Amino acid sequence: MPQAPVMSRPPLSQDLERIRTLFLQMFVRAESMTQQAVRSLIQRDPHMARAVTSADEALDDLEVEIDRLCVRYLALARPSGYELRLVTTVLKMVTDLERMGDLAVNIAERGLDLGAGPGLEPGESLPRMGDAVVRMIRLAADGFVQGDARVHDELRARDDEVDDLNREAFRHWLGVMAAHPDQADRAMSFTSVSRYLERIADHAVNLGQMIVLLVEGRDVRHL
Q: Model-level pTM greater than 0.85?
């Protein structure tokens, strides 16, 4: 994405800076959990997979704390303009980030099951999907920090790529199940991982929509 100027915004109060800081921590954790979940699956690393499941509690705690601070700020400060958009969009975006964490846990749990025995390996499509999805989370974080509404269009384009990879992976594992019925359970687990990654990408697009609302005041959902 071409470099964009940082959005001009008024200085934030201490309370809003706290909300923004915690929110960015959620971005970092969601990205890290997704990356580690896919890596644990590919490398058959149970320790890394368990680290992902353990990290989910901290992500949940961040969501709860951000919600509390946002509601308190709305009640006490009665913000308007950019500050109101910031608080209301963050309240929506934390839900997407928390769900990303849940999906990363699902991937890690599949990795624990698959790593316990011999059989089919993930192949090429899942690592590619994992890399693409992690880049989408990072792109959404950069768009939020820079106040760049154009990130939404790029996230949609990358989501289309992830959708294509998901369909490709599904066709591949269907063929594997037909050729190797004894590996059907493992193949189905890999299709589940592919679907989890596709859903994380969808949540990244949701984040992009909220960035447009924050920066430009436009609601581009359902368009």
A: yes
